């Protein structure tokens, strides 16, 4: 059960965020209730505690403490401004717009400015919600001070969160998700013809989740480890395990297929497996394969304290023995490839355990296991820390700066929301402003804002229905209502990264309970909430489309070019190293490619949304992203193989590889040029297969003679995937090369 929880919530980040916020609110309510504050002040305290908790996003505890300390004067100034200016609506509205502009513009100054701007906005909104007046300020000062103090107590005492602890939980999540992926492979081995589509879909999901966790670990390594060498060691071992698991999945798909499986099978969501291709594995070694997959899963999931023992060592030794050609069982070539994949995955798991848990018991090692350990030790010793600073992108200025553009857009949209909201209600117009504000958070294009506004509206409508039922059930039971509010707050934070619709649902359900506590609940109030939400979303979309718009196509094209540039750089660097040129840092380049691809995937969500009316465009976007994920997988695999060369004496560079990737890199650059400028004259080159471009010969080390074969397979698949991008992106193919 713990593994399932760790896998569903990597790092327990959502669980801790929800519990911490609930704890801060509960402490605030208990203290204020003990001081005999009235219910409206309790509501204000709960809202202030929630804002003070979720607004602080920094990861360093010292920086968090400074931001929390600064949040108190910011909150007191904001509530004072709101209470004093409430009597002059026009001045109050202008002040609110200035706060909104400053809060969004301040994002350019980092996480602290972002958090303080968010607190200033939320507390001003709080003053409008509770209809603060100057006479209420003394009590509101006490309420907000208590709320900020309780938030700090929950953050630093009740639920402290360190980078090292978060990274350790992310490692557990990676293991759990790796175990789930291996469990899915066992299901794939046993799946009947009617179940293959579902299992392959589960395999895609498990692979994507493992990759997501690897990216999360990558983002926290520098702050969560003791030194750079340890960070790079963990980074390499995580990458090795991820690639080995993905490769094993492809090998098993190939073993079940009538022909070699296209890599796209793992990366195109919802794509059905072609009928007649996926056949049961009919081989005498199938039972052994199932046993070894289960044993590999056991090695991954077994707790650290239970990894010793002769039986487990024998299992590990048997799996690592498959890396030796002589130990492979008698079977078809495709099935033997699966056993090789199991051996490579076992080696990756051994390296992962050594990196995360320290030295392992070596008393029962076989010669094959000892060789694997020697290879891992040599790789660890060869890790070098690059001292070269990262190249900084040129900073945009003026209206091209994202924060400036977003601040202007939000201010204009909020102005429209104020005008429209006043027409709907003179008392609760601020709900439209809040929605307009929220749809701009973490969005960069008009399409993203449209999708987010629609999800918020849907969640609000469903939340109104739930709020009606909860308000009727609670009646005038104050503490029951507060308890349900805490449940809704926890659910809101726990579901926020998963579904914006669910988050909006719980927000609106909690709102119905708050209105009940304030004795202002009515059916018309909740209906007005829906109307104001729709108005705010519409204002946000209209503003994003008219004022300094960033079209979804433009945004996705910029990110697509970035992905292609990083893919070309990684491919060239990996093949250069595989052909004998000096060692470079490939792991970081691979992760930069993965992060750029993740950004592109997020930006294309408006294009791939299920309700989009442009079906062909949706299918094209999905196909392009899937092809790029396939390219990234092969790029990671090339980088991982190349990283073995400097330290592993059993692998030799192959100079014949030096000239085989020029066409691939040229084609990637041609596609990038065409995306930048549709009128570009760049064309794709075609020609013979990658494997046929090598002259006959063998590697210097016979035992690893399959290394070049593996590299060639990755290059061939990469070449095919890059060529596949030409049609959906409209890149012309050079006719002369095609004829040859």
Automatic annotation (TrEMBL):
**Membrane topology recorded in Swiss-Prot or TrEMBL:** Multi-pass membrane protein
Q: Which residues cross the membrane?
A: 12-33, 39-56, 65-84, 90-106, 113-133, 139-158, 406-424, 430-450, 457-475, 481-498, 505-527, 533-550
Where does the protein principally reside?
A: membrane
Domain of life of the organism in this record?
Bacteria
What is the annotated localization of this protein?
Answer: Cell membrane
Say yes or no: keyword Cell membrane present: yes
* Pfam families xrefs: FUSC_2
Residue ranges annotated as compositionally biased, kind Acidic residues, are 376-390
UniProt keywords (A-Z) are: Cell membrane, Membrane, Transmembrane, Transmembrane helix
Q: Where is this region: Disordered?
A: 353-402
Q: Which GO terms describe its cellular component?
A: plasma membrane
Tell me where in this chain the Integral membrane bound transporter domain is found. 417-542
What family does the Swiss-Prot or TrEMBL record give for this protein?
Belongs to the YccS/YhfK family.
- Please identify the protein, giving its name as recorded: FUSC family protein
Instruction: Name the source organism.
Output: Streptomyces bauhiniae
């Amino acid at each position: 059960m713990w593994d399932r929880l760790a896998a569903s919530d990597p790092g327990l980040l959502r669980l801790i965020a929800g519990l911490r916020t609930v704890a801060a609110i509960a402490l605030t309510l208990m203290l204020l209730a003990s001081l005999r504050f009235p219910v409206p002040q309790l509501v204000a305290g709960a809202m202030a505690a929630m804002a003070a908790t979720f607004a602080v996003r920094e990861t360093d505890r010292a920086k968090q403490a400074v931001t929390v300390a600064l949040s108190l004067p910011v909150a007191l100034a904001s509530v004072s401004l709101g209470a004093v200016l409430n009597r002059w609506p026009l001045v109050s509205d202008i002040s609110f717009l200035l706060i909104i502009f400053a809060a969004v513009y301040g994002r350019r100054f980092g996480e602290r400015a972002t958090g303080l701007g968010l607190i200033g906005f939320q507390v001003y909104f709080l003053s409008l919600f509770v209809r603060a007046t100057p006479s209420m300020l003394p009590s509101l000062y006490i309420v907000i001070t208590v709320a900020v103090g309780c938030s700090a107590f929950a953050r630093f005492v009740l639920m402290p969160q360190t980078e090292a602890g978060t990274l350790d939980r992310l490692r557990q999540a990676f293991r759990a998700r790796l175990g789930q992926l291996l469990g899915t492979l066992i299901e794939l081995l046993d799946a009947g013809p009617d179940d293959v589509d579902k299992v392959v879909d589960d395999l895609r999901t498990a692979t994507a989740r493992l990759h997501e966790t690897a990216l999360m670990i990558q983002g926290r390594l520098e702050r969560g480890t003791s030194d750079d060498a340890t960070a790079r060691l963990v980074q390499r071992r995580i990458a090795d395990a991820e690639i080995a698991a993905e490769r094993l999945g492809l090998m098993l798909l190939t073993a079940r297929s009538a022909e070699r499986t296209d890599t796209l099978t793992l990366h195109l969501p919802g794509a059905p497996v072609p009928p007649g291709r996926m056949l049961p594995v009919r081989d005498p070694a199938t039972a052994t394969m199932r046993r070894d997959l289960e044993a590999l899963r056991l090695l991954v999931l077994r707790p650290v304290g239970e990894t010793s023992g002769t039986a487990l060592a024998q299992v590990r030794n048997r799996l690592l023995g498959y890396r030796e050609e002589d130990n492979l069982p008698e079977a078809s070539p495709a099935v033997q490839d699966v056993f090789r994949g199991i051996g490579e995955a076992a080696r990756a798991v051994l390296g992962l355990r050594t990196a995360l848990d320290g030295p392992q018991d070596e008393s029962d090692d076989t010669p094959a296991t000892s060789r694997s350990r020697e290879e891992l030790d040599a790789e660890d010793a060869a890790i070098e820390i690059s001292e070269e600073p990262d190249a900084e992108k040129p900073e945009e200025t003026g209206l091209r700066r994202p924060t400036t553009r977003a601040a202007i857009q939000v201010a204009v949209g909020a102005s429209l929301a104020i005008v429209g909201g006043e027409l709907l209600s003179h008392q609760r117009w601020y709900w439209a402003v809040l929605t307009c504000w929220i749809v701009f958070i973490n969005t960069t294009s008009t399409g993203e804002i449209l999708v987010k506004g629609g999800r918020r509206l849907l969640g609000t409508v469903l939340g109104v229905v739930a709020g009606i039922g909860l308000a009727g059930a609670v009646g005038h039971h104050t503490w029951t209502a507060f308890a349900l509010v805490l449940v809704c707050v926890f659910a809101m934070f726990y579901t926020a990264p998963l579904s914006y619709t669910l988050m909006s649902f719980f927000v609106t359900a909690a709102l119905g309970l708050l209105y009940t506590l304030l004795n202002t609940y009515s059916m018309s109030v909740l209906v007005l909430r829906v109307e104001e939400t729709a108005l705010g979303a519409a204002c946000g979309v209209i503003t994003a489309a008219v004022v300094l718009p960033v079209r979804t196509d433009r945004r996705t094209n910029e990110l697509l070019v970035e992905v292609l540039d990083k893919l070309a750089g990684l491919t060239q660097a990996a093949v250069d190293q595989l052909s004998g040129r000096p060692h470079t840092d490939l792991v970081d380049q691979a992760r930069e490619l993965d992060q750029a691809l993740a950004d592109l995937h997020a930006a294309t969500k408006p294009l791939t949304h299920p309700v989009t009316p442009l079906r062909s465009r949706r299918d094209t976007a999905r196909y392009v992203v899937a092809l790029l994920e396939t390219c990234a997988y092969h790029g990671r695999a090339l980088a991982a193989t190349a990283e073995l060369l400097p330290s592993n004496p059993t692998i030799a560079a192959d100079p014949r590889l030096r000239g085989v990737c020029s066409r691939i890199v040229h084609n990637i650059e041609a596609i990038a040029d065409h995306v930048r400028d549709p009128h570009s004259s760049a064309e794709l080159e075609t020609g013979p297969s990658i494997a046929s471009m090598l002259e006959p010969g063998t590697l210097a080390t016979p035992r690893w003679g399959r290394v070049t074969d593996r590299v060639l397979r990755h290059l061939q698949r990469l070449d095919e995937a890059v060529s596949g991008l030409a049609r959906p992106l409209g890149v012309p193919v050079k006719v002369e090369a095609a004829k040859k």
